[in-house]
Amino acid sequence: MNAYAQVQDLKVKALVKSEDLGYNHNETVLNEKSNNAKSRIKTMKLGFIGLGNLGQPLAMNLLKAGYRLTVYDLRREAADKLIAGGALWADSPRDVAAQSDVVITALPSPTVVTAVVSGEDGIFAGLKAGDTWIDMSTNDSQEIERLAELGAGKGILTLEAPVTGGVPRAHSGQITVLVSGDKAVFEKHRPIQEVMGGQILYLGGVRTASIVKVITNMLAFIHLWALGEALMLGKKAGIDVATVYESIRASSGNSFVTETEGPEILNGRYDHNFTMALAAKDLHLAYQLGREFGVPLDLGGLVEQIFARARLKYGDSAGSTQVVKLLEDDLGFDLRAPGYDTSLTAP
Questions:
Q1: 231-243 in b/e burial notation, b at 16+ Cβ within 10 A?
Q2: How far apart are CA 240 and CA 234, in angstroms?
Q3: Is the pLDDT assigned to residue 23 strictly greater than 50?
Q4: In terms of residue numbers, what domain contains 69?
Q5: 251 and 158 share a domain?
Q6: How far, CA to CA in Å, does 66 sit from each of 39, 192, 266, 313?
C-alpha cells in the first residue's frame, strides 16, 4: 500500500470510528464556530445567490449555524437540500435582497456577477441603505471596484471575499477566505466569514482580494501543469508513476496542488469540482492584471494557452485537472496508478 493509500485508509477508519461514537469532527468544528457567531449576530438575515459546487456548501454552513437564509439560483433544484434544511426560496436576486440584511454571491464569472448585482431585477434593486453585499466569486478586480462604488451611491456596503482551498474545505467550513473592503464593515461581518471559513485574511481595500485570488489561482494552474509534466517525464523514463508521485510528495517539489489534485490524475477521474471554463476565465483575469500592472507573465501566459487548448478539446464542463490529459493524449501514455481512490474522501 502506497503512502497516499495508507493516509486515506487511516482517514476512513477514523471516520468510521467517529461515526460509531456519534462524533463528526467537521460538524464539531462548525458547531463551535456557529455558537460563537450566533451569539454575536443572531438576528442578521442572510441571502445567498449561486448554489454551485462552491456556493452550496458555503450556504449550507450558514444554515447549520442557525442563520435565517434566503436563496436563489438559476436551477431551482440546486436549492433542494438547503430548502429541506430550512432555507427560504426567492424568485429573483431582487427578492433575495428584499428579504435580507446581507446578500452573498458565489457566481461563475464577472459578467454574471454584474447582471445579478446591478441588473433591473438585481441585488442592488432590493437592498436598502445600510445593507451589505458580499461577493465570494473570483471576480474582475476593476468590475468589483465599479460595483462597490455603484452600491455606495445607494448606501449599500460591499465586501469581496473570494475563497481558496478547494470544495472539500468548503464543506468542512475550513476553506480560506480572502476579504477586502472597509475594515469596520469586515469586522461587523467577520462572524459570517468564520462560519464558512477556517483562515480569514483581511487584505485591505476593495479590489485587493480579487487580485490576490487571481494570483493564487494562476499559481495553482501553473503547478498543475508542472506536476503533469513531472509525472510524465518519470513515466517515460521507465519509473513507476506512483513512485514518482510519492517521491515528489516527500520532496521540495511538493505543493498543495500535488497533494490535492495529484490523486485525481493518477486515478483518472480528473474531478476536482472546478471546470475548465472557470480555469480559463481565471487565467485570463491574471493575464489582464499583468497587462494592467506591466508584469510579463511568461509562465502564466503559456499556461493560459495550454488551458485554452484543453478547453477546446475537452469542453467547458470538463474538470480543470483534465488539462494533464493533453500530455497523455499527445504522448500515448497514461498516468494511472492503483491506490488513489479519491471517491472515499469526496464530499
A1: bbebbeeeeebbe
A2: 7
A3: no
A4: 21-205
A5: no
A6: 10, 11, 40, 44
| Angle (CA) 213 11 36, round 5° | 55
Overall number of domains in the chain = 2
pLDDT tens figures, 247-297: 999 999 999 999 999 999 999 999 888 999 999 999 999 999 999 999 999
**Mean pLDDT score, 96-117:** 98
| Burial of residue 65, with CB atoms counted within 10 A of its CB: 0-12 exposed, 13-18 middle, 19 or more buried | buried
CATH number at residue 40: 3.40.50.720
Among 180, 205, 230, where does a domain finish?
205
Q: One-letter amino acid identity for 193?
A: Q
Is residue 127 pLDDT above 60, yes or no?
yes
Question: Do residue 253 and residue 280 come from a single domain?
Answer: yes
Residue holding cell 523514463?
A: 237
Q: Which of 213, 235, 281, 325 is catalytic?
A: 213
What is the rounded (10 degree) CA torsion for 61, 69, 137, 35? -40
- Residue 218 and residue 197 share a domain: no
Query: For residue 151, is it within any domain?
Result: yes
Examine the domain organization and report whether 182 and 228 are in the same domain. no
Query: Do 219 and 198 share a structural domain?
Result: no
236 is catalytic: no
Type of residue found at 220? A
| pLDDT tens track for 187-246 | 999 999 999 999 999 999 999 999 999 999 999 999 999 999 999 999 999 999 999 999
8 A C-beta contact, residue 166 and residue 197: no
Residues 187 and 311 both lie in one domain: no
d(CA 311, CA 302): 14
Q: For the whole model, what pTM was predicted?
A: 0.86
CA distance 295 to 288: 10
Tell me the chain's radius of gyration from C-alpha atoms.
Answer: 21
- Same-domain pairing of 229 and 113: no
